[in-house]
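Record type: ASSEMBLY
Status: queued
Input:
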Amino acid sequence: MAENNLVNVAVVGATGAVGEKIIEILEHKNFPINEIKLLSSKRSAGKRVVFNQQELTVEEAKPESFSNIDIALFSAGGSVSKKLAPEAVKRGAVVVDNTSAFRMDEDVPLVVPEVNEDDLQSHNGIIANPNCSTIQMVAALKPIQKAFGLSRVIVSTYQAVSGAGNQANQELEQQTRQYLNNEEMTAELLPVKGDEKHYPIAFNALPQIDVFQDNGYTFEEMKMINESKKILHAQDLAIAATCVRLPFFTSHAESVYIDVEKGGLTVEDIWSALRGADGVILQDDPNTQTYPTPLNASNKEEVFVGRVRKDLDNTKGFHLWIVSDNLIKGAAWNTIQIAEHLVMNKWL
Amino acid sequence: MAENNLVNVAVVGATGAVGEKIIEILEHKNFPINEIKLLSSKRSAGKRVVFNQQELTVEEAKPESFSNIDIALFSAGGSVSKKLAPEAVKRGAVVVDNTSAFRMDEDVPLVVPEVNEDDLQSHNGIIANPNCSTIQMVAALKPIQKAFGLSRVIVSTYQAVSGAGNQANQELEQQTRQYLNNEEMTAELLPVKGDEKHYPIAFNALPQIDVFQDNGYTFEEMKMINESKKILHAQDLAIAATCVRLPFFTSHAESVYIDVEKGGLTVEDIWSALRGADGVILQDDPNTQTYPTPLNASNKEEVFVGRVRKDLDNTKGFHLWIVSDNLIKGAAWNTIQIAEHLVMNKWL
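Status: finished
Output:
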């Protein structure tokens, strides 16, 4: 870190959907940057990006790119992180990694700052940023867990295509135009780029995000399950997920059922736990049709919660509707929050 | 009924989304019709509709329209049914009503033929067709309930706009074009025509279907809860629903968690219960990315089930993904199935 408390930052995957958001937020939040380096694959290298009125050239990410870097923010896919994150650490950088490469490693903290900031302290050079659908859920559940205990979570997701990158946005837009023009829709990417079958996402719903695991769950579903337990420090939490891709561009929504440990609670009790919570905004009033939606949550950094209802049969059961921008709190903003906490607490 | 076993049929709401489907299916299935009468509101009366190569004129529905009618199929909204269904019964017709007007009346059978055909026998002139989102769920859950018992259901829905009628389809299409043209989206109908606030549905998700009840649930959610108990003859079933409107035209999808009563079951056990079930098609193979989607289920009359998974914590818990065309099995086809069973069994 430079004497002036400013840091040298590298953004890896600078031309991707999340990388673009990271650059936008670093600028907007006046992150204490001495120098910034924008890195990408060989294919995207050479692109020009404006940052704080300066035109920068994106360079190909290589091991030696990380000399003299204090913080490297990775979001260029798991294989890039696996290869280059250790190289960055070797050269003295702290890595905040936005892929699934290191999330479940025991010596890698997996952090949502509002939930488990203290876990940052024990880092060994790499900190993992959780999956988008996990972040917004644990941000909303942590205050409830803290106040009343939490024993069971059953979540069904409603996920935006941008979680699969800029190409997925283009595919949704193209298919939508094809459908409205009575042309056949061409599906080449979703649900999973590397998988054999592709289904149209426009005017459809695909119950597959990421590849299938041996137990019949998708990797996205297992990420939500395993990451939530790690972040909430709750290995015994019973948790299940069904993850579904839907035809909208931005923000994930989640229909979440929970069992709390404390009995006799009312909707008002859940509301008061959520009202005081960092980074959470309660939008819940049936009388005025107030509830969060993906469109309204887009381009905002908070996690929005509404439709809180008491289960009609289980006295410890509640239902919630949780919405947040998957590229901001679900990715770029949470990554930068982690970097901010590292700088502020001098945990670099 | 005429001597030749042919019946005189009236379709009320003949120009609506469901009415159009009813006419199409009556023709396609060669329903044993002697005479057909197409009825509508005053506003839509006079429209011309072709049925079996004959051009028919839609007439305004009035009490005297039902003289000499054997079966009247109503889908013109609850207030029309409340007013005219008793008039039709008074004139000797049996009414199959596709609105929520009579569904919870104790002396009105609420029927999905594959599930509770026998309930038809006790009718007093009116039979209710369940809500679209209910029909497909109970059709898939009945074989599981029958084989293994069922104690708990938690459902999150993914519902098509056509459930809100032809105007909602037009609104989705218009908003989609506006969005793609970078114009502001105009929202005038969804989520609920008569409610104060309207939100865009294009590229969005609305966690409100029908009006809010005093307990914070929407009427759609309470319909799913109460109707399922009645159809499954399971007043003690613990059941909760979260209903969400999404930007596609046809077919509802449902992410369903269930607790069965029998222990030690595997996914294969659930599969075998579903495989033999009337009107249900299993589409479930992670290895070949086989699962139902709304686009693939559209214009089909069956209920499709996939993504069957065993819960990772609760040994009696399973997850399912249930998809069906909301206008066909969810409305028109179930209505006509009821009429067919009435005719076949001479229960008119």
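Annotation: Chain B has a mean pLDDT of 97.
Annotation: Chain B touches chain A through 60 residues (CB under 8 Å).
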